[in-house]
Amino acid sequence: MQIKGGNIYIKSRDTDSIYILLLHIRGWIDIKTEKIKYGIFLESSGRDNCPGEKPRDMKPRFIDVVALWRSILVYFRDNYPGIPCPIETMILLILLTGSDYTDGFPQFGPAKIWESFKE
After folding, report:
1. Dihedrals phi, psi of 108, to nearest 5 degrees
2. Is 106 within the bounds of a domain?
3. Residue 51 belongs to domain spanning
4. In the chain, which end has fewer C-beta atoms inside a 10 angstrom radius, N or C?
5. What DSSP state is assigned to residue 22?
6. Is 107 in a helix, a strand, or coil?
7. What sign does the dihedral 43-85-94-81 (CA atoms) show?
8. Sign, Cα dihedral of 100, 103, 108, 111
9. What is the pLDDT of residue 75?
10. Span 29-53, average pLDDT
11. Which of 81, 84, 86 is closest to 69 using CA atoms?
12. Which residues pair with 43 in a beta bridge?
């Protein structure tokens, strides 16, 4: 992690770090101004492991985490105003559709959740 000119730059090989950052942005909001104290940028890179293909290094991706956080809030405010926790709801929906994080939880993963809807 580096801090340059009021911005935080984080380099990660794990895309789950996006969810972790989104969940912690509230701690970086200035209570008086209601503004986020820093710009938060994630450089995500790693290996692309598509089934049946040889693993290859991915090009780095840069994600403006604050812009993503704000767009999730705007989307839910405009389309689902009754949802009280839009960031947490969005992350739950992402995890329920499957990620390397939920693959390690056979009792919680997408297959188990969707199976419960059959009943």
Report:
1. -120, -20
2. no
3. 2-83
4. C
5. H
6. coil
7. negative
8. positive
9. 92
10. 75
11. 86
12. 11, 62
Helix (H, G, I), strand (E, B) or coil at 69: helix
Question: Residues, the chain, total?
Answer: 119
**Pair type for strands 47-48 and 39-44:** unpaired
Determine the 3-state secondary structure of 67 from DSSP: helix
Residue showing tokens 């929906």: 93
Burial group, residue 61, by CB count within 10 angstroms (0-12, 13-18, 19+): exposed
Q: Which two tokens stand for residue 50?
A: 């598509």
Residue 60 is given by DSSP the state P
Q: In this predicted model, what pLDDT tens digit does every residue of 91-117 receive, in sequence order?
A: 888 777 766 666 666 666 666 666 665
Tally of domains within the chain: 1
Looking at the domain assignment, is residue 33 inside a domain? yes
- 9: in domain: yes
SS3 of 9, please?
strand
